[in-house]
Design brief:
Helix content is 65%, strand content 3%. The protein is mostly helical. The protein has one domain. The chain has a two-stranded antiparallel ribbon with strand order 1-2. The termini are far apart. About 5% of the residues have low confidence.
């Protein structure tokens, strides 16, 4: 059984999160917290993808699909009105167990729906089941075949959320009730709601980092690194490569689903744009920038690049910028930008003179 350890960099990061909040509050620029919070939720996808790509050696172009699964599942369950079944024994039992909530939508109508915590558990279960079903055949593939298979999965999820009436089609699902740490489930977007979700987001990110760091420094992590180096050699040593890759794929899908579910509650809505292929390409690009096997680099770049994107720094060229970043990093710094590019890598791109 893996013993959970809290690493000092995680504690330092937690202190930095608090300092950043205090600094923003003192300067009166708390509006930055919205983009920082959203960036943290997106960083959860990047952390999971870093585990999958950098340690298990598997590439995925469909993780935006898992993000959408988490978001749409929790949105449907917390907005679907169960009022017509209010008097049934099943609904009465769920209410007595505290698994339902009563709230008002933007039109003042009373809505009886599943509680966010029950919906969150259902979203995680659904994401894990889908990852298992998809991973069982897909993980056997390698290289570009695996990338194409996960790309196909992402396209399927995108078309489903775009065309399903239950999921709001192109409009998505709005009026999703929020849940915070204190003060009730819905805080209607006031400052306490922003602050609560800022800490919820960073708690989720740092918890994911603790889990991931403990994983890669355990026997499982050593097995994953051996699989990344040479799957055939790892298999010859008795490592069940298929089981390890499948488990990592499911864990990374869960990280993405957690980010999607929490961001949906924070925004109060979710739309098909969260399931596009370019979103998946963006996550892969961020992992490449931070370093394929560098959790801290992936997390930092995930927050930084998403923050710049959400602030509109890249303008209408947002997707083009991330595509260019991916190409540039793969050519000049394949180990990530935090690794200093080797001059021999740069000079190798230049034309060479032919000797006389």
């Amino acid at each position: 059984m893996m013993r959970l350890r809290i690493y000092y960099p995680v504690l330092a990061a937690a202190a930095l999160v608090v300092v950043l909040h205090v600094a923003l509050a003192a300067s009166g620029k708390t509006y930055y917290m919205t983009q920082i919070t959203m960036s943290a939720y997106y960083a959860l996808v990047v952390i999971g993808l870093c585990l999958l790509m950098g340690y298990a050696g598997q590439i995925s172009l469909g993780h935006a699909g898992f993000f959408a699964i988490g978001g749409y599942t929790i949105a449907v369950l917390t907005t679907y009105d169960l009022g017509n079944w209010r008097e049934t024994p099943a609904i009465g039992l769920l209410r007595s167990l505290g698994l339902l909530m009563q709230w008002q939508d933007m039109y003042g109508r009373d809505i009886l729906s599943f509680s966010p915590w029950l919906a969150f558990a259902a979203a995680m279960l659904l994401a894990a089941l889908i990852a298992l079903v998809i991973g069982l055949p897909v993980i056997r593939l390698k290289g570009h075949y695996l990338a194409m298979a996960t790309l196909g999965f992402g396209l399927i999820i995108y078309r489903i959320v775009l065309g399903a009436r239950l999921l709001g089609q192109a409009d998505g699902i709005s009026n999703v009730p929020a849940f915070g740490l204190v003060g009730g489930l819905q805080v209607n977007g006031r400052a306490p709601f922003r602050v609560q979700n800022y800490y919820i987001a960073w708690f989720a990110v740092l918890a994911a980092m603790v889990l991931s760091l403990n994983l890669i420094h355990s026997r499982v992590g050593r097995a994953l690194r051996s699989i990344h180096q040479s799957e055939e050699a790892a298999h010859s040593l008795g490592i069940d490569t298929y089981r390890y890759k499948l488990a990592t794929f499911i864990l990374s899908a869960l990280f993405a689903a957690v980010g999607g579910a929490l961001l949906t509650h924070y925004n109060g809505s979710i739309g098909p744009s969260e399931a596009t292929v370019m979103k998946s390409v963006r996550y892969v690009a961020i992992v490449a920038v931070g370093g394929m096997a560098n959790l801290w680099g992936a997390m930092l770049m995930g927050v930084l690049l998403n923050f710049l994107s959400l602030r509109g720094v890249f303008g209408s060229f947002d997707d083009a910028v991330f595509g260019a970043i991916l190409i540039g990093v793969m050519i000049l710094a394949p180990q990530g930008l935090l690794q200093v590019p080797r001059w021999r890598t740069v000079t190798a791109l230049l034309p060479r003179r032919k000797r006389a």
